[in-house]
Specification:
The protein is of the alpha/beta class. About 50% of the residues lie in helices and about 25% in strands. It has a five-stranded parallel beta sheet with strand order 3-2-1-4-5, sandwiched between helices. α4 runs parallel beside α6. It is globular. It starts with a strand and ends with a strand.
Amino acid sequence: MYKILVPVDGSEESEKAITQAIHMAELEKGKLIFYFVVNIQQAAISVHLCQEIIDSLTEEGNRILGEIKEKLPDNLDCETVLEVGIPYERIVDYAKDKAVDIIVMGSRGLSLVEGILMGSVSRNVLEQAPCSVLIAK
């Protein structure tokens, strides 16, 4: 079965990727894997607050994944996965480990300074993924 990995974060760009992935799954009889990564880079602001932040982000991720699954047509095969880590690394590792056929994700614009310091998740996935990547805009 054609496996379509769809990293999500609740953003408008992510919604566009979901729409594209659903269309692809309907055409290819594919399995959708909606994937949320609790970003430990966001949680690392304070050692004391780290677990609270991770718990809050995990709750938000589960909410986002639940809402996506509720809106899907019944005839689509899908699963949801939530992991903790650095988003682009976890996405690439998951795609390798699960032999994903394609990653469909949203683009996210970063400011020049953020782009230089952190890089973009979509750009890093595009450069390192073991499969094709579709960036929805």
